[in-house]
Specification:
Elements (H helix, E strand, L loop, with lengths): L8 H8 L8 E3 L1 H7 L3 E5 L9 H11 L2 H4 L3 E4 L3 H12 L4 E5 L5 H9 L3 E4 L4 H15 L2 E2 L6 H17 L5 E5 L4 H12 L5 E7 L4 H8 L26 H8 L2 E5 L1 H15 L9 H7 L10 E5 L6 H9 L7
Parallel strand pairs: 2-10, 3-4, 3-6, 4-5, 7-8, 7-10, 8-9
Antiparallel strand pairs: 1-2
Helix pairs in contact: 1-3, 1-8, 3-5, 3-8, 8-9, 9-11, 12-13
Length: about 325
């Protein structure tokens, strides 16, 4: 068997120092009582762009030689990664272009424009948006920043686990939102390199869970995207996936799926008990615990709350105590 891809977490931490938030790890007493073990929330939702994606974007962009990145950066995104890339680009005074599909919600599009991105809306899937981003990179010389399948991006996301291990060395499991696998691959790699018994567990929505389906198939597969509260988790992993599928398939034993009602219940739970506004993708770990899809380990469990960028209509529904929006 070939060796795992080299993921340089130490260098990523150095690049991130002073540029991203070392996010808090807070107890979740109500959730702990419900599931019978100590539960903690790793609040990536307090990052300056509202999601963990700023870690991977910072790690990748700062690894690109200054002369190369001076021509700008380009990426494809379901929203949060593009916002993070644009945030980092603006801090370096370089241009950022973000390609998105027509399925990206209006709230995330507005956030991209607000941070100064040039936004190109193309096609009906993340796959088409990625293809267009590659074309722009070839046409303009801009550096391409992959949303997940890149060692420097994975290393940036891995810094979350490094922080968790410093703050809670006895952690038994970490529940991780799963889409293209950059976050889960990074956290799994960090745990593997630290030689700890902590188990990484991937959590995704039932609708168009591409990585979960790919793991079952034993190879990357494509799925048609479906509307979901966890829209940030949509998108294919790429049939030519080079890193995340390999890492996740080798280092992660458990991946669970949650339905839309469970996601909304989790969003409401976080709002009601912690006064946290969390997007659907960021709440899937809580959903997994509440619906019993995840059986907690014998020890502390950490949930990565990956993002706060809920759609305005979802926030209004939460404030009003309304049922889940129809997807």
């Amino acid at each position: 068997m070939s060796s795992l891809p080299e993921i340089d977490i130490r260098s990523a931490r150095e690049r991130l120092h002073g540029r991203v938030v070392r996010t808090p790890l807070v107890p979740a007493p109500e959730l702990s009582d419900q599931v019978g073990t100590d539960v903690y929330l790793k609040l990536e939702s307090v990052q300056p762009t509202g999601s963990f994606k700023v870690r991977g974007a910072t790690s990748k962009i700062l690894s690109i030689p200054e002369e190369e990145r001076s021509l700008g950066v380009v990426t494809a995104s379901t929203g949060n990664h593009g916002r993070a890339v644009s945030y980092v680009a603006r801090s370096l005074d370089i241009r950022a272009t973000v390609c998105v599909s027509h399925g990206v919600p209006h709230g995330k599009l507005d956030a991209l424009h607000a941070v100064g991105a040039t936004v190109e809306v193309v096609g009906d899937s993340q796959t088409v948006a990625l293809q267009r981003a590659h074309e722009i990179a070839e046409e303009t010389g801009a550096a391409f920043v992959h949303p997940f399948d890149d060692p420097e991006v994975i290393a940036g996301q891995a810094t979350i686990a490094a922080e968790v291990l410093e703050d809670l060395p006895e952690v038994a499991s970490i529940l991780v939102p799963l889409s293209g696998g950059g976050l889960l691959a990074g956290i799994a790699t960090a745990l593997h390199e630290a030689s700890v018994a902590t188990q990484p567990i991937g959590v995704s929505m039932e609708r168009a869970a591409v990585m979960a389906t790919s793991l079952e198939a034993g190879k990357p597969v494509d799925l048609e995207e479906e509307p979901t509260l966890a829209d940030s988790l949509l998108g294919d992993i790429g049939l030519d996936n080079r890193y995340t599928f390999d890492i996740v398939s080798r280092l992660v034993q458990d991946v669970v799926l949650v339905d839309e009602n469970a996601i909304w219940t989790a969003m409401w739970f976080l709002f009601d008990n912690h006064r946290l506004v969390v997007e659907g993708a960021g709440a899937v770990g809580v959903a997994g615990l509440l619906m019993g899809a995840v059986v907690p380990s014998a020890g502390p469990t950490v949930l990565v709350i990956s993002g706060a960028n809920a759609e305005p209509s979802h926030v209004q529904a939460l404030l009003a105590g309304n049922p889940a929006p129809t997807m």
